[in-house]
Sequence to fold (396 residues):
Amino acid sequence: MNKDFIDALNQLATERNIDKEQLLTSFEEALEQAYERNVEPGKIIEVQVDPESGEIDVLVVRRVVEEIEEPEQEILLSEARDLDPTVEVGMEMEFPVDPDRFTRIAVQTTKQVITQKIREAERTVVFNEYKDRAGDIITAVVSRTDNKRNVFVDLGRGEAIMPPKEQIQGERYMVGMRLKVYVMKVELGSRGPSILVSRAAPELLEYLMRQEIPEVADETVELKAVAREAGQRSKVAVISRNTNIDPIGACIGHRGARIQAVTGELQRERVDIILWDPNPREFIRNALSPAKVGNIDVNTETGEAKVNVGNDQLSLAIGKGGQNVRLAAKLTGFKIDLVASEHVSDLDAALQAVASRTTDTNLPTDDAKRAAFEALFSAAPETPDAADPETESERA
Fold:
């Protein structure tokens, strides 16, 4: 051991971002284990390395006793006092050992232990760096894939895994490909830190919208809810805090430029922007767009909603493979039951919309409202009728 070795150890610590003192301590522990295992079995070994000169001291530690029970670790009081008259029972004595007694096996073992210590230190460094980044969006580089379709990405100082269920359906991942990922979870296991990332998380869509839409970034337009089936279709409920700003138009942009910039990062995933409404009936109605639906009966206690849909709108409300109603249910938090009707008129929808905006339980029923609405436009004018006999007599 010499100064050059210490310099190399310091350089290694700097390159791997490992604490120098921790690395030196790990090196001393490795030497102790190797020496005890291969040179002095059963003895207590203490190794000290001078951090400046690189000089190494190997010591055998023995405890002073009146009667020996463990010969390899103890020394009689009488023998100890021949070496040092001041020692007492229970004290420890150190005996230097020639470090040249290290065998080739001991050196090889030391190398293996040091390598293991370095790996453990690196894992701890990686975990400490990313443990507080769960929930962040990070730009990563695809490093490899395996036969289970897992994708591994390089985050800079560590590697993360993206399982198939967290990938965008239909997206191909090539080694060296740069992409944005959402950090879902960071854990420290027996094999080191485990970092789980996702491209399918709704949070990634929210992040991209904040990046591309200024009104969303400054919270003039608020994202109230997001439902996503990655790579296929998403629904985003928005509302504006400024009455002069159209939240849907702000998100879509001129000729769809803003939303296209978002979907370009997501394999052209279709994103529906809908208007959020505090009234659950209107929110469900908006969420089922582009389908036009009729009456909506909401049970807030059970979280269920019964929606009347005309036969001509039923397939549109359901969507391909049930996707439209499924996303609407995720977005609103209600279990939506679509009920087919032979015909749902615009009047039915309008009356239901009016009814849903009021909380006055004493108002007339929907049938009474419809009758009143029709009567309003069918009532005769309040002018004298020429056929009225009383009017004729008055004229005479």
